[in-house]
Structures are given as structure tokens and as C-alpha cells.
UniProtKB/TrEMBL annotation:
<dbReference type="GO" id="GO:0032259">
    <property type="term" value="P:methylation"/>
</dbReference>
<dbReference type="InterPro" id="IPR050078">
    <property type="entry name" value="Ribosomal_L11_MeTrfase_PrmA"/>
</dbReference>
<feature type="binding site">
    <location>
        <position position="249"/>
    </location>
    <ligand>
        <name>S-adenosyl-L-methionine</name>
    </ligand>
</feature>
<keyword id="KW-0808">Transferase</keyword>
<dbReference type="Pfam" id="PF06325">
    <property type="entry name" value="PrmA"/>
</dbReference>
<comment type="function">
    <text>Methylates ribosomal protein L11.</text>
</comment>
<protein>
    <recommendedName>
        <fullName>Ribosomal protein L11 methyltransferase</fullName>
        <ecNumber>2.1.1.-</ecNumber>
    </recommendedName>
</protein>
<feature type="binding site">
    <location>
        <position position="162"/>
    </location>
    <ligand>
        <name>S-adenosyl-L-methionine</name>
    </ligand>
</feature>
<comment type="similarity">
    <text>Belongs to the methyltransferase superfamily. PrmA family.</text>
</comment>
<keyword id="KW-0963">Cytoplasm</keyword>
<feature type="binding site">
    <location>
        <position position="205"/>
    </location>
    <ligand>
        <name>S-adenosyl-L-methionine</name>
    </ligand>
</feature>
<keyword id="KW-0949">S-adenosyl-L-methionine</keyword>
<feature type="binding site">
    <location>
        <position position="183"/>
    </location>
    <ligand>
        <name>S-adenosyl-L-methionine</name>
    </ligand>
</feature>
<keyword id="KW-0489">Methyltransferase</keyword>
<dbReference type="GO" id="GO:0016279">
    <property type="term" value="F:protein-lysine N-methyltransferase activity"/>
</dbReference>
<dbReference type="InterPro" id="IPR004498">
    <property type="entry name" value="Ribosomal_PrmA_MeTrfase"/>
</dbReference>
<dbReference type="InterPro" id="IPR029063">
    <property type="entry name" value="SAM-dependent_MTases_sf"/>
</dbReference>
Length: 318
């Protein structure tokens, strides 16, 4: 079987949006080569040092490739992807040059490419993400392993926004929390939350296709057997209940309408963790949080991306 590779040349700030565009267009998997990853690179073995002056790597911008079955209408896909990439400027994202090209890839070559780009990554002090084809033994007794299929959904621990959220989870989880993961993607944050001690996790994503993708990764991790995942446009279909922590790793343009909604599901004093915030949008998100009744406890930065830890203000704090 042959696959068709659709390649988008873009900028680091648009990587998540372009990846989502390709997945929604029907890509079976995504491959990312982002210059910004050098800034946030952490090897699984802390004793390994990488000399980036010697190792070949991308020095500017990003390439996002989507893999499509040979039977799809490729011209239609390319036109749709190009149109949506061009529209990213309307959301304040620099996607330049935004060129969309294609090439044919043999199935065996594609498998080789996945294994070339995805290896175990020690994301935080306690959490390591391991692709499902790798055999990996934890280096320390308190190291927890998350097994993922990197082809199933975007957000597998290597991008700075996912790293920031996993670090934030380590900071706020004390044990037995009820957590809502809005826009769960690969499901990696929900799995991380369970490993860190959350008692229950509900994940949501935009449609049933995304939900099935997340479920595939949950099934690879026994700790995630009781995580529930459902289709919902933001909080629209989330059952009435109260959470201790709400996590949202998505574009700033989506966070803005989400922020006022979170009060309906987050207990007073509960933690709200946000990422997907490019550096030029951080002040906007902080201002929206503060006007919506939240106190920002911590700002985290990795490369050009921000993560925020906030809490819902009590009556005494308002």
C-alpha cells in the first residue's frame, strides 16, 4: 500500500493549528519537524548531551506532514488544506510561507519515518512518553511511563505546549482530584493526571473521530482504563458536575470563549491549567482570566509558548 504525504511549510506558532487542519482533512498520522523543539529538547537519558552545532536539525520555522491513504481525492484535500492554512492569519497566527505540497510514500517508508522521529522522551521529572513500538525500562523508581501511538492524534508530549501542561499537572495534583481535560487530543494529559494521582478524568474533544483516536491511546495504558472520553464542543455537552482541575491545551483563539464557561464546572478554588498560548497572546489570556474571576498563580514559558496555572477566586478574593 502507498500513502500520500501532504506537507505544509509554516512557523512554530502555527504547528498545532496546521496539525489539526491536516487531521480534520483525513490524515491518518502527522509528522512534525519544528525548529522550536531544539529549545525544549530533553533526552530520555539525562546523562546524554546533544551538540546541536553538529547534529543536523531544522533551524527556522516548521514542517508539518500529514499522511493520507492512496484512495483519497488528493487535489480536493490540498485545496481544502491550503484554504484553511491561508485563513490562519485571520486568527492572528503566522503560518507563512504556508505552502502545501505533496509526494507519494511507500507504506514501509512511512513506518520507518515514524520510528525515526519518535523515541522515548522524558517530559518532566516523573513522566516519560514512549511510542508503542519501543521497549523501555524506567531509569528511576519514581519515573512513570505513558505509552502512545504517535500517529493517532496530535499532542504526544514532544511539543512545548504539551510539556508545559504535564509540568503544570505535576505542580497541582496532590491526589484524588476530579479532572476535566477539554480538547483531550491524544489523551496524554488525562493519562498523565491518572499516573500523578487524579481519582477521575473526563476528556472531551470536538467529534467522535477525535474521541476514537484518544481512546486508542487510553487503551495502551492500564492506568487509564477508567478515563471517560466524549464528544463535546468545548463544554456544551459536559454533564453537570464539579471538577477540582480543568485542563485546556488549545489555541488562544479557542481559550478566549472557553474561559467564561469554565466557572460552571470548576469548584471555587479549583485549578485551571491553560496552554497553547503563543507569546504574543499571553497578555490577552491573562486579562481574560482576571476579568472572568480567576487568579493567575504561575506563568510558565518554554521557547515561544506559555502555560498558565490559575485558580477560581473565592468570594474573599473577589
Amino acid at each position: 500500500m502507498s500513502w500520500q504525504e501532504v506537507i505544509v511549510e509554516t512557523q512554530s506558532e502555527a504547528v498545532e493549528a496546521v496539525s489539526n487542519i491536516l487531521m480534520e482533512a483525513g490524515a491518518e498520522g502527522i509528522q512534525i519537524d519544528d525548529a522550536a523543539d531544539v529549545d525544549s529538547y530533553e533526552p530520555a537519558d539525562a546523562t546524554v548531551w546533544v551538540d546541536w552545532d553538529v547534529v543536523e536539525h531544522r533551524e527556522a520555522g516548521a514542517l508539518v506532514a500529514g499522511y493520507f491513504p492512496e484512495n483519497v481525492n488528493l487535489p480536493e484535500v490540498i485545496n481544502d488544506v491550503q484554504m484553511r492554512v491561508n485563513q490562519l492569519a485571520d486568527f492572528g497566527l503566522d503560518a507563512t510561507p504556508g505552502t502545501v505540497t505533496t509526494t507519494a510514500v511507500k507504506d514501509a517508508d512511512w513506518a520507518t519515518e515514524w520510528q525515526k522521529y519518535y523515541h522515548p522522551v522524558r517530559v518532566t521529572r516523573h513522566l516519560t512518553v514512549v511510542p508503542k513500538w519501543e521497549e523501555y525500562l524506567p531509569a528511576q523508581k519514581d519515573e512513570q511511563v505513558i505509552v502512545l501511538d504517535p500517529g493517532m492524534a496530535f499532542g504526544t508530549g514532544t511539543h512545548p505546549t504539551t510539556r508545559l501542561m504535564m509540568q503544570a499537572l505535576e505542580i497541582v495534583i496532590r491526589g484524588d482530584e476530579r479532572l476535566l481535560d477539554v480538547g483531550t487530543g491524544s489523551g496524554v494529559l488525562g493519562i498523565a493526571a491518572k499516573l500523578l494521582g487524579a481519582s477521575s478524568v473526563l476528556g472531551t474533544d470536538i467529534d467522535e473521530v477525535a474521541v476514537r483516536s484518544a481512546q486508542g491511546n487510553l487503551d495502551l495504558n492500564p492506568i487509564a482504563s477508567d478515563i471517560k472520553v466524549m464528544a463535546s464542543d468545548l463544554l456544551q455537552d459536559v454533564p453537570a458536575q464539579e471538577f477540582d482541575i480543568v485542563v485546556a491545551n488549545m489555541l488562544a483563539e479557542v481559550l478566549v470563549p472557553l474561559i467564561p464557561q469554565v466557572e460552571s464546572v470548576l469548584r471555587p478554588g479549583g485549578k485551571f491549567l491553560l496552554s497553547g498560548i503563543y507569546q504574543d497572546k499571553a497578555d490577552v489570556i491573562v486579562a481574560k482570566l482576571e476579568t472572568s474571576g480567576y487568579v493567575v498563580d504561575e506563568k510558565m514559558k518554554l521557547g515561544e509558548w506559555y502555560g498558565l496555572i490559575a485558580h477560581r477566586a473565592s468570594e474573599d478574593e473577589k
